[in-house]
Amino acid sequence: MLIVDILAAAAEAAPQNKFGFAEALKQGGFIAYATVIILGIMSFGSFYILFTKWFEQSKIMRQFSTVRTAFWKAPTLKEGATKLEKNSAWRQIVDDGVKAEEEASKLKDPTEAHDWLHGSLARSEASINARLAGGLPFLATVGATSPFIGLFGTVVGIYRALIAIGLAGSASIDKVAGPVGEALIMTALGLLVAVPAVLAYNYLQARNKRIAELLTGFSTDVLANIASGGAVKPTVAAAPAKAAPAKPAAAPAKS
């Protein structure tokens, strides 16, 4: 019993930590809860955009291997389009190019017909790039504003802490350090939300630039194929043939 009483007395005498994330929310009131909710929505939206855009970009890059092999082996663009997945970026460019070719044939001026065909493919390419860029402005907004939202929560928390300290009439370090450190949690949350959003934006933007280069090259090839009546096609890289095993050298004849 004596040991139990000593441990209980030591536990009561030990300083109790009355500060933490839950305490900061309780003391911050509506503003603290609103700040955390807004940052939570921003964080969820950032990761949602990151994964959905990554899968969309990966799908387009994976489909490009079919474009380089099976598509250009077809005798015509219409037959090659059947080998591409429906509603894909590459199928859209081909379909828009074939449709533009039919409409351009109605123009009497060959120069105007070529410009119409070139503009139609460029418009199709731009629509794909715009669709790929969807969601990136949200990531940029989160990366730019979430630190300031967290800082706003910190400022309000420090203001409440200073008011409470003033009413208590004590400004010792134990009265100041706890509430101020508690208020800085909001700034840390803002940075925690901003950094992944900025990294995701730069990563997705770099992949979009790579896809845009591939789309531009493919659109140019389609335009050249249409303008030449199917004579111009990019060189399709054939799979390297397996080298035949080397035959053992014949033994020299003995004299």
Automatic annotation (TrEMBL):
Subcellular location: Cell inner membrane; Membrane
Protein name per UniProt: Biopolymer transport protein ExbB
Membrane topology qualifier: Multi-pass membrane protein
Keyword field contains Signal: no
Pfam families recorded: MotA_ExbB (PF01618)
InterPro entries: ExbB/TolQ_transport (IPR050790), MotA_ExbB_proton_chnl (IPR002898)
Spans traversing the lipid bilayer: 29-51, 148-171, 183-204
Subunit: The accessory proteins ExbB and ExbD seem to form a complex with TonB.
Entry similarity comment: Belongs to the exbB/tolQ family.
Keyword line: Cell inner membrane, Cell membrane, Membrane, Protein transport, Transmembrane, Transmembrane helix, Transport
Keyword NADP included in the entry's annotation: no
Organism: Novosphingobium album (ex Hu et al. 2023)
Record domain MotA/TolQ/ExbB proton channel: where: 90-213
Function: Involved in the TonB-dependent energy-dependent transport of various receptor-bound substrates. Protects ExbD from proteolytic degradation and functionally stabilizes TonB.
